[in-house]
Amino acid sequence: MDPSADTWDLFSPLISLWINRFYIYLGFAVSISLWICVQIVIKTQGKNLQEKSVPKAAQDLMTNGYVSLQEKDIFVSGVKIFYGSQTGTAKGFATVLAEAVTSLDLPVAIINLKEYDPDDHLIEEVTSKNVCVFLVATYTDGLPTESAEWFCKWLEEASIDFRFGKTYLKGMRYAVFGLGNSAYASHFNKVGKNVDKWLWMLGAHRVMSRGEGDCDVVKSKHGSIEADFRAWKTKFISQLQALQKGERKKSCGGHCKKGKCESHQHGSEEREEGSHEQDELHHRDTEEEEPFESSSEEEFGGEDHQSLNSIVDVEDLGKIMDHVKKEKREKEQQEEKSGLFRNMGRNEDGERRAMITPALREALTKQGYQLIGSHSGVKLCRWTKSMLRGRGGCYKHTFYGIESHRCMETTPSLACANKCVFCWRHHTNPVGTEWRWKMDQPEMILKEAIENHQNMIKQFKGVPGVKAERFEEGMTVKHCALSLVGEPIMYPEINRFLKLLHQCKISSFLVTNAQFPAEIRNLEPVTQLYVSVDASTKDSLKKIDRPLFKDFWQRFLDSLKALAVKQQRTVYRLTLVKAWNVDELQAYAQLVSLGNPDFIEVKFKIGGEWWTWIDYNRFQELIQEYEDSGGSKTFSAKDYMARTPHWALFGASERGFDPKDTRHQRKNKSKAISGC
Predict the structure, then answer these.
(1) % the chain with pLDDT above 90
(2) DSSP state, 316?
């Protein structure tokens, strides 16, 4: 055997390894790389598990020996509440909302729009991370209140000014709550809707749907404007908490339908805020002509509309807009029909609803009203209480001889056709232009009115200072002032009610706001008929009384003309408010000539003596003769006038009704007519 062959067999594997050494090196390199990668993955997973199980502060303490201050993302830096108010309601709501926001440990600022310059400061809200809330009331003719007038004017002009553009307020977050009265159907909550729309058109992001408060307690969804606000406030606070945590809770972009958002309808997950804003901008681009509005009750949009994320051919935009406008018209027609049904004052069963809702009952009861049936009330006048104690009575005591402790102040209708700026009833009563509620019978109203009045008088028995004689007299009602609240002449059975008063030997003083001329013409004789003349020109009357009727001025003039032909005593009652209606004296004089009232233009100075008092016994005799003759035997104011006692004249001291005098002495001193 050849020795060299053995040597070759020994070295051949080594030679083979040497020849393939590059592949061996590569295998080692790959193996080492895989091992390193596996170790990195294992360590990374272990670190993640540790971070999840151990708080950040604990990690810092273990690794560094101290706790570091962790940076926290701030999603809401604060809340700014802007309000525009005329009577103080919006301002009060701002205070209530501020208290609720404060409970979330958020800074809050309340800002009167009258003192705010949007031109300088509104742009700051784009980067401030604040949430801006606007509480704005709608005033006469759908205009903003005086305090919000400039802000609304600026916002409207900015929304249509190309120099601002559609992204001017991009980044600003806002919510709107409007205050209005649905009795003014043509411009209900118009200011709130406009502010919401204008902010949206400038690129601001609506964090929740607009709230709408309704002063009309009959139509208010929750029974009162306060309840409407509380319901909206609860939703806002919930949304604010979500924003505070960084949650991108679904907010309304203005293209939803009846509160059902498209994202929910399609079952998709909530989109990120950036995506949502892009959709809003796309929506603004395609529908600049008619930007959608959203409210807490009903919101626009449709399930069958193309998704905003989908691509829309330019040629199809016209069809889409036509479809949207058609749906809007159909919705308005539906609302008009439903509004007509509501105006009929009927519930779902077709029955007329009660005027006094639970919320209204609660509000009026707190104010001391004793409510009767479904639309009437009685209240004890402070002058009644004063005269029971032997003190003075109201002006009707001096002018007309009415003893205040025997006078009952009541109304058969809590509803009114005006929303006067100086109304001392806090606008809690419902409003309307016609009777659309369930009606109670006049016999029941009068019976319960007298009973409630007597029960309130009884509460003064034994009260220090109350005169026993006057307490006894006060239990018998001799006079009825139909001026408590609302518009008594609206009550369809007002004439029957007056007849019942006169049959009970109770004189009648009726006050009307001069918006129902036909009812004044058809009114049965009353002891004295008052008309409230709150202004002397069309513009000032509109500003002060805020009437519901569109033809309010003609109705006002026709009412005064109807007053001029009444045979009984008539009175103009002026309510003069400084800086409102005291500078139009010549116009007032013309109105006096038109209505020709017995008072204001005084006619009863006879033989150098004033005759302003009333012979109430003679009036009862005359009204009985009128009834017996079927209305053919009329009488005039002069037939039951009485001489004014000396103590009631200007400049005289009141010697007539000394607290120590007996009733007989009071009669002799005043020379008043028996039965006054």
Answers:
(1) 36
(2) G
